[in-house]
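Q: What changes when NA7 is included in the input?
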Amino acid sequence: GVAQTSTTLDVAIVGGGLAGLYAIHRLRGLGFEVRAFEAGSGIGGTWFWNKYPGARCDIESLEYSYSFSDDLQQDWNWPERYATQGQILDYINHVADRFDLRGHVQLNTRIVAASFDKAANQWRLTTEAGETIAARFCVMATGNLSTPRVPDFKGIESFEGRWYHSGMWPAEGVDFSGQRVGVVGTGSSGIQMIPLIAQDAEHLTVFQRTANFSLPAQNGPMDPERERAFKSDYRRRRDEARQTGFGVSGYPVPTQSAIAVSDEERRRNYERLWQQGGSIGFLTCYTDFLVNEDANRTAAEFVREKIRTIVKDPKIAALLTPDDHPIGSKRLCLDTGYYETYNRPNVSLVDVRAAPIVEITPKGVRTTEREYELDAIAFATGFDAMTGALREIDIRGADGERLAEKWAGGPLTYLGIMVAGFPNMFVVTGPGSPGVKSQMIHSIEQHIDWVADLLKSASDRQVRRIDADPGAEENWVAHVNEVADGTLYPRANSWYVGANIPGKPRVFMPYVGGVSTYRRICDDVAADDYRGLSLT
Ligand code: NA7
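A: The predicted holo structure follows.
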């Protein structure tokens, strides 16, 4: 068997992605003894696992990067407007070396259990190999889209070809040339991989359940002029990002209703945003874009017309045209040549809403209508988002309560960071935080800075135990719901509500009040001697 080793830390960090690495950096800077535990054989989290063709960030890289070091952001050169998975992974590895973080990450180590020992005021973590770690505090930097989900299709084990999932793609890549490939799923991951697989495969069959809105990324090599302008103004741009809803600079907070302007002006604006590329421009173009159905419909109709213009076969165009949810209420996808791909002779689209997949056969995929013979299947079917990674760990609080049970009806948190009954544990960009509705690294830095200040203050005051008050948690969850209910977000069957996981309680999980409001609330809580927390 495995030798039982035991380690005692100030802070155990679960996860070695962008959040875990920044937590190491900040907490070490305060003198804490820390270690991060990473299941993968390399650092990088999301950007380590999602190696599928076309994987790239949908936020511009000058924004989607750490802001904590001006030298870093000045030195680093992003080769494209939107970085690829590989470019982001290079950046993460550079950061790990530059700030001496790598030695504090234990790779190939999956944490399977964590329980709070209230007599010792310590977390006890257990790895899959049976190692135990004791730590005063625990930071769950486990990611939001880190538990891949392949639907439990009957017969999948009988498939004679190879199958893959976007979130656990083989490190060496996959050569689809000459193959008949099926892609299941048309969320962000499917929409990114479909154009590239179509170029390689002999034939690509896309199995679509729900059509999605996608906007052109208008990606390209980094414009040197833009990079120069950005870098000469980086600090101000980061400050500006803090004053916005999504944590991205360059998009002023809207002041005008979409309904208040003429059709012509609105169309001109949408056309400009389409040409400019990216999703944030659309999401922030009018005050009521995500609040008022009539306002939202103007943009949805604009994109639907674009789809009908790009896709030559009107039947295919109709299938690709979303009509079940307000635009932006699901994660708005960005693409490079997605709709155009359906004009290729080697690509076909199958509507699996009309005729659902019933099973995987040895030869391919069978729907209620017919069998499709395939050599390979790529599942872009998403993740057990936001709560999956934490539910997979057997987390037990001060009184032995299981987190999975506490969250059976939906996640409960205070500020998205702490959970009542689970002292000294901090979640990064979890449910109830604006994380997934923001430039993620922005929120990671904000959360970890806030937690670092709290731990510093607690240590200075000899505090051994930090608890979230149940009442504060209840109020926060009510606030998160109230804000969401004032928007169109809950109207979509998205991973924001857990809709892609059968049986998952339908609860809108992210905080959509915007990062500036959220930051103000967190700062007020801290200034008010950590209102809602008990420090003992
Ligand atoms: P998503 O956005 O959850 O998309 C998953 C897709 O897979 C979506 O089109 C689903 O259709 C489809 N799906 C899921 N299960 C099935 C079954 N059983 N049959 C057919 N189709 C299915 O995941 P992504 O990986 O694309 O993106 C996740 C996030 O990563 C993204 O938002 C970015 O923030 C980065 P549905 O819509 O449920 O009908």
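Observations recorded in class: Residues 145, 151, 166, 184-190, 207, 209-210, 331, 352, 357, 380-382, 495, 500 surround NA7 (CB under 6 Å).
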